[in-house]
Design a protein that fits this description.
Blueprint: H1 2-16, E1 19-28, E2 33-34, E3 39-44, E4 55-59, E5 65-72, E6 76-80, E7 86-88, E8 93-95, E9 103-109, E10 115-120, E11 123-126, E12 131-137, E13 143-147, E14 156-158, E15 163-167, H2 169-174, E16 176-189, E17 192-200, E18 202-205, E19 208-211, E20 221-226, E21 229-235, E22 242-247, E23 253-259
Parallel strand pairs: 1-9, 14-23
Antiparallel strand pairs: 1-2, 1-5, 3-4, 3-6, 6-8, 7-9, 10-11, 10-15, 12-13, 12-23, 15-21, 16-17, 16-22, 18-19, 20-21, 22-23
Length: 267
């Protein structure tokens, strides 16, 4: 009987390579603080033939510490967070076994897909487009673009402590913030007259057209790799307070956003 038990133990150790562990620290990527009470899942990759090696779970404690005690030695695992809109950044492949120091991982509040979003506390809210993009020319043939509808009321505002999120490789590469510049009075374009409208990235007056650059504080912009895709976070003060258009060259729709505070006058 003793020999049989010994053989069973050896066979289990051989099946999963023996017991292994992994200790780590999970931090809030935005605040650089430990995250407590977050559930982590480790899935074997490639999938282990041993059922006991396939999936393990752990929950972070104070300071973001977590531990997987029953991983299979030398088996690789991919970490994930099952919580909605909370994602690990970068690569998160771990291996069961001995460590010299705990592994470090960062989690970010971010959308599950591509597009434009607003980060407000722990909420990630989609930001809709505002209107179609109208394309015209000045009388001398210079191209000019503007929203087909003038925003006169409240639009999405990125207030203090909030962030605009641009998610997806193509979105991060193409979407640009551009000043939304009012042009009081009557302006004549190739298509006709337009009165009291706003223009994207240019100032238009009786003297002609002048480009208006948008200065972005690079220290207030964070680019992160999540799910193999780029995700960009812009803080409320990444640009000067004001109203902006967000679009890529050639887009048919434009998103209008206020940064800092709402640009609608207080009543």
């Amino acid at each position: 009987m003793r020999n049989i038990l010994g053989l069973m133990v050896l066979s289990l150790q051989f099946a999963c390579g023996g017991a292994g562990g992994y200790n780590g620290l999970l931090s809030d990527g935005m605040k650089n603080e430990g995250l407590e009470g977050v559930r982590l899942v480790a899935r074997s990759q490639p999938q282990s033939r041993d059922l006991t090696c396939r999936v393990q779970e752990a929950t972070t404690t104070k300071g973001g510490a977590f531990s997987f005690d029953k991983l299979c030695r030398d088996q690789s695992y991919v970490l994930s967070v099952p919580e909605l809109n909370l994602h690990l950044s970068g690569g998160n492949t771990i291996i069961g076994g001995e460590q010299e120091a705990p592994g470090t991982h960062s989690a970010w509040r971010a959308p599950d897909g591509q597009g434009v979003f607003k980060l407000f506390g722990q909420k990630v809210l989609p930001v809709p487009t505002f209107s179609d993009v109208a394309r015209d020319e000045t009388l001398d043939g210079t191209p000019i673009v503007y929203p087909s509808m003038k925003p006169t009321g409240r639009v999405i505002t990125i207030g203090e402590g909030q962030h605009l999120i641009i998610s997806g490789k193509n979105e991060v590469k193409g979407q640009r913030l551009r000043a939304l510049v009012p042009a009081p009075g009557r302006q004549r374009l190739a298509s006709g007259f337009i009165t009291d409208h706003v223009y994207i990235g240019v100032r238009l007056d009786g003297r002609g057209l002048e480009p208006v650059a948008t200065e972005i504080d690079s220290k207030k912009v964070v680019d992160v790799l999540i799910r193999g895709e780029g995700v960009r976070f812009l803080a409320h003060d990444a640009v000067a307070p004001g109203r902006y258009a967000l679009m890529a060259d050639g887009d048919a729709r434009v998103t209008i956003i206020d940064f800092g505070v709402s640009q609608v006058p207080q009543k």
